[in-house]
């Protein structure tokens, strides 16, 4: 190794620690999606299944904002250490939970840690690596999701079938401890002192993120109520908090789908609502409706991860060959994703259709997601001025997190309303996939708004 490498002695420990931190988050994320049906079944949580994902996603928003502000004020060491500790504590809490409410509390704590880790990881690269090594580290950070997404779901399913779902959570803290041991001592002095800001800095973004999280949580919880007047009142209160806050934390024109950056953020939200919202309920459908084991359900998620990479590479090649065609690439990606969701719905609708068709459908969906995600993100950031790159990147991530939480909550409410039994679960899941399919069709129509006129 040369000193020009991110694995050269001056950077090796930090590089390995950051990659391990992100890989552990990725493994936990995809592993839990695989085993969540088993957890909900054992802890009597199918009535609020969607909260198993929404709790983490909403806490993620808060963790991201808190860690970002802390890093600006006093450096990255403390928020990164806190994020790792909180993430590990959440895994222990969820992995030892004796009931669904405690499990959801563990998921919320995990989300705070995940938001902090992911927010600070990018800041660490900017502060701790020379400019000529940063692109390589950003690429490695992206690839840190690849291996966990390929083996994480299958490994989690195998652990659940042969030991217990609790192993998926309790294996994480030792990995976090190793990551902390590698990362924290390797942070250079400038990273711990840089970026100190005034304590009285504008708290608007923090308050808006809190209002958005609380409002969304109230809205999703309202959907689980059986008392209609209480449902309406709580849902309206949640929307009254969330919508103005969402307007505050996203670029102007996002909620009105204005051509250019605003539409780009909205398209990211739609894409992730379709993909991650469908992904959240694929294992439940395969296990509860079609009777497959956790390992095969995990294989379905892994298939989507593999083809996402392929779709992204395909779009990158197409982009270089046909410049300016990203809007069409995004529309095509949405259409392919829609076809994948339709195949999943077909496999769940009839026992006469092989259950493996759902896995094939998700492989097709992953291909479309890779195409559309690559094209829309590249087009949006290309139109963003240098001074607004951080703002728009954060808005894209926020749209992804919020959309996933909302669709998971809506689908979970459908499962709860359907009651017990395979037929009820089947109907709820078909309604959920019909909804994500409609969002994909809407994405096909909106893809043309990615590029501002002129």
From TrEMBL:
It is a multi-pass membrane protein. GO terms for molecular function: transmembrane transporter activity. Keywords: Membrane, Transmembrane, Transmembrane helix. InterPro entries: MFS, MFS_dom, MFS_trans_sf. The chain crosses the membrane at residues 12-36, 48-68, 80-102, 108-130, 137-159, 165-184, 205-224, 230-249, 261-278, 290-310, 331-349, 355-375, 395-415, 427-448. Residues 14-454 form the Major facilitator superfamily (MFS) profile domain. The keyword Transcription regulation does not apply. GO terms for cellular component: plasma membrane. It comes from the Bacteria. It is found in: Cell membrane. The keyword Transmembrane applies. Pfam families: MFS_1. This is Major Facilitator Superfamily protein. The lineage of its organism: Bacteria, Bacillati, Actinomycetota, Actinomycetes, Kitasatosporales.
